[in-house]
C-alpha cells in the first residue's frame, strides 16, 4: 500500500520524465543491430524507473548464484560501452532529479531512489529487477 502511494507520487513528481529517457535510449539502441543487447535492458529499467518502489535492481549472478553472459567479461565490456554512449547521460538526469527532490523533506525518499537509478544507469548490464521481498 505504501509503495503504491510512493509510486503514484513518484510518477507525478518526475519519475515519468526519467522513464521516458530510458525508453528513448532503448528506442535508439533498437534502431541499430549493435545496440539490440542494450535495448531490452533500457525498456526493463525504464519500467523500473517509472514504478520503482517495491522493486529492486540486483546483480543476476548474486541472485542466481551462477554467472551468465552479462555478468562475466562480456558484461564488463558491455557496461563500458554503455557508459560511454548513454549511461552517463541517464545518470546525470537521475542525479539532477535527485538534487531537485532533496530540496524538500518530502522529496528525500525520491532523491534516494534517483541516486540508486543513477548507479544503475552507469552499469546496467548484468542487472535484473525483482520484487523487494525476493531480492535478499
UniProtKB/TrEMBL annotation:
The chain crosses the membrane at residues 6-39, 69-91, 97-119. It comes from the Bacteria. GO terms for cellular component: plasma membrane. The keyword Membrane applies. Residues 5-55, 77-126 form the Inner membrane component domain. Keywords: Membrane, Transmembrane, Transmembrane helix. This is Inner membrane component domain-containing protein. It comes from Parasynechococcus marenigrum (strain WH8102).
Amino acid at each position: 500500500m505504501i509503495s503504491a502511494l510512493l509510486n503514484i507520487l513518484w510518477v507525478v513528481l518526475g519519475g515519468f520524465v526519467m522513464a521516458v529517457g530510458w525508453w528513448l535510449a532503448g528506442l535508439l539502441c533498437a534502431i541499430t543491430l549493435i545496440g539490440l543487447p542494450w535495448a531490452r535492458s533500457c525498456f526493463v529499467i525504464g519500467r523500473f524507473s517509472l514504478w520503482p518502489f517495491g522493486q529492486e535492481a540486483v546483480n543476476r549472478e548474486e541472485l542466481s548464484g551462477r554467472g551468465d553472459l552479462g555478468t562475466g567479461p562480456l558484461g564488463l565490456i558491455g557496461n563500458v560501452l554503455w557508459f560511454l554512449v548513454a549511461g552517463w547521460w541517464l545518470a546525470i538526469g537521475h542525479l539532477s532529479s535527485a538534487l531537485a527532490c532533496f530540496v524538500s523533506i518530502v522529496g528525500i525518499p525520491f532523491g534516494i531512489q534517483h541516486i540508486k537509478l543513477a548507479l544503475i544507469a552507469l552499469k546496467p548490464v548484468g542487472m535484473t529487477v525483482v520484487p523487494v521481498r525476493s531480492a535478499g
